[in-house]
Amino acid sequence: MKKAKHEEVKMENDAQQPTGTDNISAQQNEQMTEQNSNNAEDVEKTEASVAQFEKEAAEWKDKYMRLSAEFDNYRKRTLKEKMDLTKYAGEEMLKSLLPVVDDFERGLATLEQSNDIDAVKQGIELIYAKFISFIQQKGLKEIEAKNLPFDTDFHEAVTKIPVEDKEMSGKVVDVIQKGYLLDEKVVRFAKVVVGE
C-alpha cells in the first residue's frame, strides 16, 4: 500500500509538471503572440507610411496644379503681349515720322502760294534731308553699290551691259533702285546694272 501511495503522489507531481510537448506549445504561443504584436506594429507602420505618402502626393498634386495654372496664365499673357507688340510695333516709328509729314504739308501749302521755284526746291531738299536723317537714326542705311564689285548678298542684277573699260567688268555700272540695310540685315536689295 505504501508503494501504491508513493506512485500516486509521483503521478500527481508528474501531472503538475508540464511535459515536453506542453513546454513547446507554450513557447509557440509566446512566439505567435510576439509575431502578432510585431505584425500589428508593421501594419501600423505601413498604414502610417501610406498616409504619409498620400499626404505628400496630395501636396505634389497641389503644387503641380498651381504651377500648371501659373504657366497657363504666363502663356496667355505673353501671347497677348506678342499680339500687342505686333499690332503696335510701328507706333513709335510712325510717331517719329509725323514731323516729316507736317513739313510736307507746310511745303505743299507754301507751294500753292509761292512763285519762287528755288525756295520750293530748297524746302523739298530740307524735308528730304530731314527724312533721310530720321531713317538713319532708326538704323536704316543705304547699300553702297555704284562702281563696286557685284555682290549677290546686297545687289540684284537687273541686266548686264558691255563696258569699254575692262576694270568695270563684274562691277556695278548703274543703280536702278537703291537698296537698304536695317542694322546689317538687307531690307531691300539694290537693283543694279552690271558691266561685262
* Mean residue pLDDT: 83
Strand order of the largest sheet: 1-4-5
Q: Which parts are unreliable, with pLDDT below 50 for 5 consecutive residues or more?
A: none
Terminal Cα span: 154 Å
Structural class: alpha+beta
Give the SSE order as H and E letters. HHHHEEEEEE
Taking the sheet with the most strands, its summary is: 3 strands, antiparallel
Rounded radius of gyration (Å): 51 Å
Count, helices: 4
- The CATH homologous superfamily of the domain at 141-196 is named Head domain of nucleotide exchange factor GrpE
- Strand residue content: 5-15%
Q: So what's the CATH class of the domain at 141-196?
A: Mainly Beta
Query: How many beta-strand elements?
Result: 6
Give structural notes:
The chain has 196 residues and is an alpha+beta fold. It has a domain at 141-196: Head domain of nucleotide exchange factor GrpE (Nucleotide Exchange Factor Grpe, Chain A, domain 2), CATH 2.30.22. It contains four helices and six strands, in the order ααααββββββ. It has helices at residues 2-16, 20-88, 91-113, 117-137; strands spanning 140-142, 155-161, 172-177, 180-182, 185-188, 190-195. The strands form two sheets. A three-stranded antiparallel beta sheet has the order 1-4-5. The chain has a three-stranded mixed beta sheet with strand order 2-6-3, with no helix packed on it. α3 runs antiparallel to α4 (117-137). The longest helix has 69 residues, at 20-88. It is elongated and about 130 Å long.
